[in-house]
């Protein structure tokens, strides 16, 4: 007979389920505070096991919160998953500001080596960006950027690269529509990003969202080198590639003269994201990242949670941390918008989790969301932003984005995130340009299996080899190191160009 705590984690004393920390064989007898139970059938690692008998219709608790209802009677020791656990229409009594835990400002101020921009913002990278106004100019932008891959960049050690920010829209749309406004806001967010030192805005010449529309009243740092081009005026693709390449070479010479300087950690803007979550995400990587987020906020920096469909069911935890009713209500308004949006498409917000999430042990969106919000730590919620809206307030904030990883991260970067931390339990190969993405594994198995794609391993939290606080401290130190120029795993693989995916909404005509 073994102790339950040796093979599973009971996260709260009154929880109805524990999370297996290894594969549990059927017939194994476990002792715990509530008595004894026998594992009815094999339970995969990261999945849930009932610690008490539960009748059909009973609410099931994990993290001390409801994650769904039993769809059939469940005996202690049984595997709890999609076959016997379903969604629950939980009615939330929203509170605003009742759970505020002020973050004490750090006494030891930390720094990083970054690029101070003319408008006072701080870059963690120094890129030439080619922003396309329309899909028609996407291939041309990539051809220009491809001239500057490989050994040619060795001559410009202070420049991190040339990136083509190409997308699938820009025409056949109404610029004043919701989708048009979002695309324009996203492209302008990248054009003014502190990690972009040189900018070419490239269009075809007859599109709905034209080059001049994108550049009108652009609030870019005064030291951003800006050029505009259209393929039609320049003489076609070949002529544009030649002309664009000449512009880039000129920019590289000037940008290579810039140097990193010592900047306060308070100048950082951290984006928080996750993908390929599993049963360990809310136990290891997410709360560890939450601790790192709080450390940054204590430095006076900014940290932004995202993925609105993946906080659904846990939004009440965030409204309790809102600095005002207005801030909390803005989050609820975005969730209400999402309900209408998915219903119009014939779906519901509880379509999540994905098949991969379920294979990793997550069953309902309530369970997934409760683990996802842990990335936001405990700091007060100071602001709520729409997709790609410029991030202006220090402290902890939320941005309304889809849960789809590249679209969500694109919104955060457009808002101004200069470093992104991305947790994963199933494995992710996401990259980002011009913002580096730090990938954090929730378990050691995926960290070892995908070692070339992962930056940090938090699996030791489950085994007791480390703690949430120690892992969070490691994430914090890694953020400062990456902000200072240390390459992430995805940067080493030169990933990030194809992960620029603006959110597309509305009709295409």
Keywords:
globular; 29% helix; 7-stranded parallel beta sheet; 509 residues; 4-stranded antiparallel beta sheet; alpha/beta
Structure report:
The protein has about 500 residues and is an alpha/beta fold. Helix content is about 30%, strand content about 20%. The chain contains 16 helices and 24 strands. The protein has a seven-stranded parallel beta sheet, with helices on both faces. Strands 2-3-6-9 form a four-stranded antiparallel beta sheet. β13, α2 and β14 form a beta-alpha-beta unit. α7 crosses α15. It starts with a strand and ends in a 17-residue tail after the last helix. The model has no long low-confidence stretch (mean pLDDT about 95).
Question: Helices and strands: which structural class?
Answer: alpha/beta
Q: For the residues shown, what is the average pLDDT?
A: 95
Main sheet properties? 7 strands, parallel
Strand content: 15-25%
Going across the major beta sheet, what is the strand order?
A: 20-21-19-18-22-23-24
Instruction: Show unreliable segments.
Output: none
Q: In total, how many beta strands?
A: 24
How is the quaternary structure best described?
Answer: single chain
User: Helix tally?
Assistant: 16
Give a nutshell description of this structure.
This protein has 16 helices and 24 strands. By secondary structure, it is of the alpha/beta class.
